[in-house]
Each structure stands twice: as structure tokens, then as C-alpha cells.
Design goal:
Layout: H1 3-26, E1 41-51, H2 58-69, H3 86-93, H4 102-109, H5 122-135, E2 142-150, E3 154-163, E4 168-173, H6 180-186, H7 202-217, E5 229-238, E6 241-248, E7 260-268, E8 284-287, E9 290-293, H8 301-304, H9 318-329, E10 334-343, E11 351-361, E12 365-375, E13 380-391, E14 400-412, E15 421-433, E16 436-437, E17 442-443, E18 452-464, E19 468-482, E20 487-504, H10 506-514, H11 516-521, E21 525-537, E22 546-557, H12 559-569, E23 580-581, E24 584-585, E25 589-602, E26 607-620, E27 671-684, E28 687-699, E29 722-732, E30 737-752, E31 755-757, H13 767-773, E32 775-780
Parallel strand pairs: 1-3, 4-6, 7-9, 7-11
Antiparallel strand pairs: 2-3, 5-6, 8-9, 10-11, 12-13, 13-14, 14-15, 15-18, 16-17, 18-19, 19-20, 20-21, 21-22, 22-25, 23-24, 25-26, 26-27, 27-28, 28-29, 29-30, 30-31, 30-32
């Protein structure tokens, strides 16, 4: 089977799920019931763009039509999947004139009243469309409308828009240098976002005005605002071109034209809200030029002022103010940070500002107890209890020391292994230092984000009831910092894990003899290496239609230590004759992962189309023939290929024997490839739905005689990719998401009767088919 046919079959799987859901929704939703006499149901608008010049591409024409439809008013009743008006259906089936009772509750909470055509004003919508087009450079558009009568007392509006090709910017002209204020505005021209041949757009001009205002504040004009800038537009500059003249208002306040420098900077380190800090009796000290007012024994002043980038006798700049505000807030020591400026009376051209920084501390110590439901990627779910004690200022430099103790009781509620239970117990101690600390110097880069040095020591005991106890000790030391709002780096130069298998059952011991992979994965060993991750995430930015998430990681173990030992002893290690430290072998591997997620946000993120790609590979060498258990990949389960139980998929075309004792084994591998596509949509209130298709598998780097067919082969791997589709129901209460996904396998990783695809074997009427093929996944939170 070619890759092209394989891709088409995956797409077909998703479309089958989508079509099934659509047919279900179409079966029940009527709309024109219970309309008032003489009224009709308004079902929306269509906009037809008729370009005169013929220069508009078909793609741009469709984009503009969709843009214009979105601004017509009123909005019709919400349609699920763009088809069924579910809320209107609930309104109709529970229709009542009573103001209490079950029907009234359903009608008002789950339902939505019909949008009546009498609320539609075609003339207002024509004006809205004209104004929007003018703001986008389509000057002098013609807009007219028609009413389209449909069956069942329904009406749709048709709007027709005639436009010529849009106007573009020819040039932007900044004021001459005939005054000090005009000279400062002129100095910002090189950074203008308006470029020749860019389509005219009012929003672009608004952004340009904000940019100029920000640039003026960077030159010390504290009182300057974007309202002090005006644009004059010359539409006669050329053929469908405009010239933009940037001007400063003639009657601008004098203070808006003055450059301000900072005078005294006061830091109130123990400010209480609604209290005048200037009259409180506290210590006062001058630290690096800052007047520090507060208890000198609480925080070390020299540490706090290093997060302040406003400096005495320097010009006020918005960037220094913004960095200072964000750095102080992100120290983790303060509940509120407020910065105020007060102008001093002066007759000079240059003004003076006194700066007041008010810091309201959080409680230094806090004790927290949490009880929450958790779900693991291997479909184990259950309660977790965590006790946390935090000291936010352990060394008087805003360092936080956190002690955690936790335990959980997790069980599998679905699949062949339902009833299997895992008990965990553990704890950790974490020291977070809000600055970079290295053996040689301390770094404090001037950004809005606080860099952190993190040192963590932890222990966890995992008890797989009826099988084994696994003890894990870990120590990490490293750094975390944001490069920008969307980019985060994590670098842990020291990562040490120690894995030791505790008490085991006879069932586990017998499985170890059969599956050599278990012996290697659970062997007592050290993991000594380093870790780095790079994350790019645009979801932190507001009001975006498209969002992108990317994460790449690099994880190495035993490299430097192995090089030193091999050089010193002239011994090249093997899994049978490994190098050791403290009498125990250590893992040697290089591991990397790449994850890419793309989000298309529809209707203000109420609907989303999410796609995900994941690739990971670990290369064991030297001491190791496989990755340690805590680093291996597995496929299947509620965050993976949901049509397959966790740990039952792969590696490669290997099929796990269905004996009770072997079913608990999570089939793991060194390579993982996975892809997902999911359409998420609202149903009613906090109930959300989803349709999804998943594909993926895991493979081994080396041969394993106990798992034939598991090794990765570039020539045949794509044949071993399993595919499944399904539907999901989510209870999304913002702070808590409970997820139920039902997956159906469409393609297995191994052939059945000579064929990998099993769509033709779907038989919902068969109880045995349903038992063996419908996979229920219960999870907390969204899968990706």
C-alpha cells in the first residue's frame, strides 16, 4: 500500500465519523415551532462579493464574503457543526409560558429563543457592510439586499456587494523637523508599519498611531498619548493609492511635549492596600540610588532593587516601566505591584518625575492541601492528595522553598485491564531562585520575564498491585526562562534518576523470564545526564484565529560519564558488561522529541479544529540496549490513539498474547510517531463535543526476540500505523474538564485476514464486536 493511499484512508476515517455525527444531529432539530403569529425565523445571511475589476482572486473573494457575513446583525441561532440548531431545539421541546418548573429551567438554561426576522434591519446591515469595506480600502462600495423566503416560515438575507479593487498606501509622510515635538515624531519613521503597496486598512493606521505613541514614550514624553497624533488621508495621490500625512495636534498640552527624567525613586517594600505608606514607621535606606522604605530584615533590599530598571536621572521610558512592573510581579513574592509617577513643578523644558513603587507582599509561608482527580496517559485515573508547605522568602531574596508530599490511588476503569490498581507515594523539595545562578557569575538579563534557577530533590514509590514496587529517586538542577511571551526555555544540566525495583510478585517474575524487555526496563540503574526543551506557544496571545504550539526536547544520559570512564579504563561498555557508578550500571542514550499542535479557533474559540503531530526517538548505546522504563514511549490510551487501549498498541506489528498475566504489561518502545485531528464544538452550557481521528504506533531500535515485528524498518513502518476514530463528550467547567471519548479502530498495526483496514468489519449490532472494539477513554483535561 502506498503512502498516498494510506493518507487518503486516514482522511476517510475522519470523514466517516464526521458524517455519522452530522446525520444524527440532522435527525432531530426543527426550528420554526412556537414562532409568534406573523413572525418568521431568521436563519442568517449570505454575502455575495461582486468585484468590478476582476482582479480579486477566488480565494480572497471567499475570505471577504466570510468576513462580511460575520459582521451582519443579529446573529442567527447557534448551529452545532454548522447544521443543527440544538439550543433552539431544546427551547422548542421545553416550550412553556410558565416562569418556573422543569420545562422553564430547560428552556432558559439549555435553550435559546428563536431569532425573529422582525429584528433584522437590512438598511443597518448595508451601512455596516459599507463602513467595514471603506475601512478595508474598498472605497465607494455599492451594497443592496434581498429577502429570501424559505420553507417552514424561515427567511434568509442576501446581500450583494459591488466593489472596485482596494486602495493601497503609496507613502506615509512624517512632519518636518520645524519643532522639537515634530522632530521626535520624525525620528520614529524608520519603524513605521505602513509600507508602500500595502492595502489600506484603518486598523493598520490605529496600530501605527499606537506605535508612534510608544516610540515617543521611549524618548521620555511621559504625558504624550496616541490621541495627540492625527492622520490626514489623500485619496487623490494616484490610481487607487493614498498618501498618509502624520501630524501632531495643533493644540497639544504643553506637558505632552516635554521630555521627563526620573528624580527620586521610592520603593515601599511592605505596602498595605488602603494605607498611606508615607506615614508608616518603617526602616529607610538608600540602596544603589533607590530610597528603600520597609523592613530591612524581611527582604534583602539589594536583591529587590535588581528587578527595578527605572534609574534616577535617566529619561522616562515605557519599556523600563514595563520591565520593572513585570519583573516585580513575577518574583512570586508580591500580591500587588503598583508604580506611580508624580511630576515636579519646574519651568525648564525638561520635566522631572518622582517615582513611587508600592509592593504588597504575599504571606511568607503557606500551607496547602489539595484533593483532585487525575488521569494518566495510560488510562489510570483516581484521586490524588497533595500537601504543600511553601516559604516564599527562605533566604530573604524572594527565593521559594516548597515541600510536597503526595499519594494517589489510580485504577483502570475500562478495557481488559479494568480493575488494575496503582498506588503511588512520594514527595519532593524544590528551591526556586528568581535569577540565574552559575558557578561563575549571576545573570540578570533586562527582560520582562524573571529567569529562574531551580533545584529539586524527590522520591516516588509506585506500587502496581499484584505485580511490583518501583522506587525512583531524582535530583535536578537547572534553569527556566522566557525569551518572549511565546517562547520558553528549560535547561537542566544536571539530571540524576535512580531506579530500583522493590518487591515483586511471582506473576511478574514469570513474565520477566518471557519478556526480556521487562528485565532491561526494570533493571536497577542510574540515569545521569542533561535535559533541554524549547517551547513556542501562541495560545497565550489574545484574539487569534490560528494558534500554534511547538515543543522540542533533547535528553541525554551517561554521555560525559561514559566518556570519562571509557577513557580512563580503556573499556568499551556493553549491556552485558556495563560501566558502573556506586556499584550500579547507568543508562546511556540520546533521546529527542518533537511535538507540533495547530489550532483553528472558530466562533471565539467555542469551536476548534485541532491537529497534532508527535515524533520521538531514543537511541540506547553502550551500557543500554533499550531506554529505561521511565523514558520509553507507549501508544494507545486517552492522550494517544484512543481506539486502542494504553500499552496494547505495538511495538510495530507485534501482537500481545491475551493472557491475564501479560495484559498488565505496557508495550513500550524507543520510537514513536503519532498524529491526531479533532474537531471540538459546544453542545449546551458546559457540555462540549468532539469528533476525532488518531493514528500512530511505537517501534524498537533493536531486535527483541520476545516481541517479533517490533523493530523499526523504514521500508515498512507506515504499514504498521494504526488508525482509529471516535466521538467525545466533555464536561468543561473552565477550571475542570472531565472527558469521555469512545474510539473505534479502523486500522490495526498487524494484518487481520490479510488486511490492515477493518472498517468493513464494523458491526454495531453485534455485542461481541462492541465489546472488543468500542474503547472508552476517561480523562481529566483535553488530550492535547
Amino acid at each position: 500500500m502506498s503512502l498516498n493511499i494510506f493518507t487518503k484512508n486516514i482522511l476517510r476515517s475522519f470523514l466517516v465519523s464526521l458524517a455519522a455525527a452530522c446525520l444524527f444531529l440532522l435527525a432531530s432539530c426543527s426550528g420554526s415551532k412556537y414562532l409568534p403569529a406573523g413572525e418568521k425565523l431568521y436563519v442568517g445571511a449570505e454575502v455575495h462579493v461582486l468585484p468590478d475589476s476582476g482582479t480579486m482572486t477566488l480565494k480572497r473573494q471567499k475570505e471577504l464574503q466570510g468576513e462580511l457575513i460575520g459582521i451582519t446583525r443579529p446573529r442567527p441561532n447557534i448551529r452545532l457543526l454548522g447544521i443543527a440548531r440544538v439550543k433552539l431545539w431544546f427551547y422548542n421541546i421545553a416550550y412553556t409560558k410558565k416562569e418556573k418548573g422543569l420545562k422553564h429551567l430547560i428552556q432558559t438554561s439549555l435553550g435559546e429563543p428563536p431569532v425573529l426576522f422582525s429584528r433584522v434591519s437590512p438598511k443597518n446591515n448595508e451601512d455596516i457592510l459599507k463602513n467595514h469595506l471603506e475601512n478595508r480600502g474598498y472605497f465607494n462600495p455599492e451594497v443592496y439586499s434581498k429577502i429570501e423566503e424559505l420553507k417552514d416560515r424561515k427567511v434568509r438575507m442576501q446581500y450583494f456587494v459591488k466593489i472596485d479593487r482596494p486602495y493601497t498606501f503609496r507613502k506615509i509622510i512624517f512632519p518636518t523637523k520645524d519643532s522639537s515635538i515634530n522632530k521626535l515624531v520624525y525620528n520614529t519613521k524608520d519603524e513605521s508599519i505602513i509600507r508602500p503597496d500595502m492595502q489600506y486598512n484603518l486598523d493598520s493606521l490605529k496600530k501605527e498611531r499606537v506605535r508612534i505613541n510608544t516610540a515617543m514614550k521611549e524618548q521620555g514624553l511621559y504625558y504624550f498619548t496616541d490621541e495627540d497624533i492625527i492622520f490626514k488621508v489623500d485619496t487623490t495621490a494616484g490610481d487607487h493609492q493614498v498618501d498618509i500625512y502624520v501630524q501632531v495636534k495643533k493644540r497639544i498640552p504643553r506637558q505632552s511635549t516635554r521630555i521627563y527624567t526620573l528624580n527620586n525613586i521610592y520603593v515601599y517594600a511592605n505596602h498595605a492596600l488602603f494605607q498611606d505608606s508615607s506615614i508608616s514607621r518603617t526602616d529607610t535606606a538608600v540602596v544603589d540610588g533607590y530610597i528603600y522604605i520597609g523592613n530591612l530584615e524581611t527582604y534583602r533590599p539589594e536583591i529587590i532593587v535588581k528587578s527595578i530598571y527605572l534609574e534616577k536621572d535617566s529619561a522616562y521610558t515605557f519599556s523600563d516601566y514595563d520591565i520593572t512592573l513585570n519583573r516585580l510581579m513575577r518574583l512570586g513574592a508580591y500580591k500587588y505591584v503598583n508604580i506611580k509617577f508624580k511630576a515636579l513643578d519646574t519651568l525648564k523644558k525638561t520635566g522631572k518625575l518622582d517615582t513611587y513603587i508600592y509592593l504588597t507582599p504575599l504571606p511568607q509561608k503557606s500551607l496547602r492541601a489539595e484533593l483532585k482527580l487525575v488521569s494518566e496517559s495510560d488510562d489510570y485515573a483516581g484521586p490524588l492528595i497533595n500537601l504543600s508547605l511553601k516559604d516564599r522568602n527562605v533566604f530573604r531574596g524572594a527565593e521559594s522553598l516548597t515541600f510536597n508530599v503526595n499519594t494517589s490511588l489510580l485504577s483502570q476503569f475500562t478495557g481488559f485491564t479494568h480493575g488494575e490498581t496503582t498506588v503511588t507515594f512520594g514527595g519532593d523539595v524544590t528551591l526556586d531562585i528568581p535569577r540565574f545562578i552559575t558557578p561563575f557569575f549571576i545573570l540578570n538579563p533586562p527582560t520582562r520575564f524573571v529567569p529562574k534557577t531551580e533545584i529539586k530533590l524527590g522520591y516516588q514509590k509506585v506500587s502496581e498491585i499484584n505485580y511490583y514496587n518501583l522506587n525512583t529517586f531524582n535530583f535536578t538542577a537547572g534553569y527556566k526562562w522566557n525569551q518572549t511571551e511565546t517562547i520558553e526555555h528549560v535547561f537542566n544540566p544536571i539530571v540524576i534518576d535512580y531506579l530500583k525495583l522493590g518487591q515483586t510478585s511471582k506473576a511478574f517474575d514469570s513474565l520477566e523470564k518471557v519478556f526480556t524487555s521487562l528485565q532491561r526496563s526494570f533493571a536497577t540503574q542510574f540515569v545521569i545526564g542533561s535535559y533541554y526543551s524549547y517551547t513556542y506557544n501562541t495560545q497565550v496571545l489574545p484574539n487569534r484565529k490560528y494558534d500554534l504550539f511547538f515543543k522540542g526536547t533533547a535528553d541525554v544520559s551517561g554521555n560525559l560519564l561514559g566518556l570519562i570512564q571509557s577513557t580512563a579504563t580503556d573499556h568499551y561498555p556493553t549491556p552485558e558488561s556495563p560501566n558502573k557508578i556506586f556499584g550500579e550500571p547507568y543508562s546511556q542514550y540520546v533521546l529527542g522529541t518533537l511535538e507540533l499542535k495547530h489550532y483553528i479557533n472558530i466562533e471565539a474559540k467555542e469551536e476548534r479544529l485541532v491537529t497534532r503531530l508527535f515524533a520521538g526517538i531514543g537511541l540506547p548505546y553502550g551500557n543500554s540496549s533499550s531506554l529505561p522504563y521511565i523514558k520509553e514511549f507507549f501508544a494507545g490510551g486517552n492522550n494517544s490513539v484512543r481506539a486502542f487501549l494504553p500499552g496494547f498498541l505495538g511495538p510495530g506489528s507485534y501482537q500481545l498474547p491475551e493472557s491475564k498475566n501479560s495484559l498488565f504489561i505496557d508495550q513500550v518502545g524507543d520510537i514513536k510517531l503519532e498524529g491526531n485531528i479533532e474537531y471540538r464544538f459546544p453542545i449546551i452550557g458546559i457540555l462540549k463535543g468532539a469528533i476525532f481521528t488518531d493514528a500512530g504506533n511505537i517501534w524498537l531500535v533493536n531486535n527483541d526476540t520476545s516481541r517479533p515485528g517490533g523493530k523499526f524498518d523504514i521500508r515498512t513502518f507506515y504499514k504498521q500505523i494504526a488508525v482509529g476514530s471516535g466521538v467525545g463528550l466533555r464536561v468543561d467547567a473552565s477550571y475542570f474538564v472531565l472527558r469521555f471519548d469512545i474510539g473505534i479502530p479502523f486500522r490495526k498495526a498487524y494484518p487481520t485476514d490479510g488486511n490492515y483496514w477493518i472498517i468493513d468489519k464494523i458491526d454495531f449490532a453485534s455485542p461481541s464486536w462492541r465489546t472488543n472494539n468500542l474503547v472508552l477513554n476517561i480523562g481529566i483535561g483535553y488530550p492535547f
